[in-house]
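Ticket reopened. Same input as before:
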Amino acid sequence: DVKVTQSSRYLVKRTGEKVFLECVQDMDHENMFWYRQDPGLGLRLIYFSYDVKMKEKGDIPEGYSVSREKKERFSLILESASTNQTSMYLCASSLKSGRQYFGPGTRLTVT
Amino acid sequence: SQQGEEDPQALSIQEGENATMNCSYKTSINNLQWYRQNSGRGLVHLILIRSNEREKHSGRLRVTLDTSKKSSSLLITASRAADTASYFCATDAAGSGNTGKLIFGQGTTLQVKP
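Engineering reply: fixed in the latest deploy. New output:
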């Protein structure tokens, strides 16, 4: 059974902290994605990666960076967390095109 | 950029009734997909319809696609309380290559009352 896992379900961080959100997939997928989801705004794409060490900005990359050193792992980094980055973060993976497989989400609170 | 607009934003029905959700989009697509999200969880893929298809069925789900109107509908027949969730349409825009990038609508929240 396909699986996308995220390092934490819930996370509480302080303003200014560096935050790492990890995502791992076991399906040998080329593509991986990071979204944030906020009430009334739906899912917004932060960054995606279509190959190891390749990344592209999504719609809202400001304040975030990513790392993909291995095919199965895609990390989202908040260099200096701010309260407006409090949100649900969703990771997904896919083959070249087609359906995306989502992780369970990380609910991040920045205080 | 928000591609999909969903209608209605919220829907409340009785168990056994049918639920219809609509999605409109702006650009040419390779395919359109529907996902379900239970509260506080990740999204689960329901069905994918390609741009050259007009209708697709999966169990109690029926999806239609009208590329001339740039719209799609999701019909859930004989709804159950377990269908209570948010439903999202997502489009794979033509010209996006093999990135697999999708643009999601804002979703329809469905409540099915027992």
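Chain A has a mean pLDDT of 94. Chain A touches chain B at residues 4, 30-31, 33, 35, 40-43, 45, 48, 50, 56, 58-59, 88, 90, 92, 94-105, 107 (CB under 8 Å). Please confirm and we'll close it.
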